[in-house]
Specification:
- 3 copies of one chain form a homotrimer.
- Chain A is an alpha+beta fold.
- Chain A has 2 helices and 6 strands; from the N terminus they run βββαβαββ.
- The first copy, chain A, has a 6-stranded mixed β-sheet, covered by helices on one side.
- In chain A, helix 2 links the parallel strand 4 and strand 5.
- In chain A, helix 1 packs parallel to helix 2.
- The radius of gyration of chain A is 14 Å and the shape is globular.
- At the A-B interface, strand 4, helix 2 and strand 5 of A face strand 2 of B.
Chain lengths: ~120, ~120, ~120
């Protein structure tokens, strides 16, 4: 806790998340494995599950999701994986646009904010 | 209300907005009609007015606006429509960058957060 | 103060920031000088320091940072400047993707949110 802000799992200049006033703000998450858009989306969402848990919350508490695809024509490959991930859960607000990512092999990056329940 | 979060007008895996602790977080809004950038911007802002109303708020209470243009050289076509929309209102924080959008006919997408007055 | 929201340094239709419930939401900041990515990044971060001060806060209180590079292959030119800026400070959540910016000479734009200490 520093200045009323928690910094979760800081790795050098990048934390997994900051938490303030009951909201966790995650850094953008990139694929840890996979080459297809679907496999990379699964990898990103798996990591988000783990990082939300580290913050004391879960996907049930998501407020906002931002998705960047390196090629927006792959929307139809990402979206079914996203929908499956949210099965049975009230869905968060979302936007999805195209952007090239920091490594050319990455096809998807996702950033989320979530409520941390007391 | 689920876990302290309201999910407004959920359509499958996408809500119009989530609301938590007095802030509405809208999903990205894309054009419902129009082909020119100006007409599509008007369509997006009209929809945002309606969606803010559904959340119990209005453009007077905007905190943040994010604008994506599929071609940043059309900034000068979007911006006068945006300025007119905000006429007489204290303006929200904003960023505007280029991004290709989920459908090639869409030239503009806008996402906003707003306070929900009590 | 309007509707519980402070609008800092409004210039026409664009404020430096909005403040609500102890969080400052800055508009996207673009370079005021410099041509290299490193120099433009320094210019943007210098301006952010000044704007956070105008909001009654500082980089120690950052929650979230969004970085857009007009050419993602310049990540390695931007990042050392960013890391130096955060030296000795708990780092905020961050995402960095590529996007063309409103003027072709701009290579980097950064947007931040920060807690405003009481």
């Amino acid at each position: 806790m520093s200045h009323g802000i928690e910094h979760i799992d800081v790795n050098g200049w990048l934390p997994t998340a900051t938490i303030h006033n009951g909201i966790a703000y995650l850094s953008g998450v990139v694929p840890a494995e996979g080459t297809s858009v679907a496999a990379q989306t699964r990898s990103v969402l798996d990591q988000i599950d783990g990082r939300l848990a580290r913050c004391g919350t879960s996907k049930k508490y998501l407020l906002e999701v931002s998705i960047w695809l390196s090629d927006i024509s792959t929307f139809g490959e990402m979206n079914p994986v996203y929908i499956e991930w949210l099965h049975g859960i009230p869905p968060p607000a979302r936007a999805c646009v195209e952007a090239k990512l920091a490594r050319p092999e990455w096809t998807v990056e996702i950033r989320v904010n979530a409520v941390v329940p007391k």
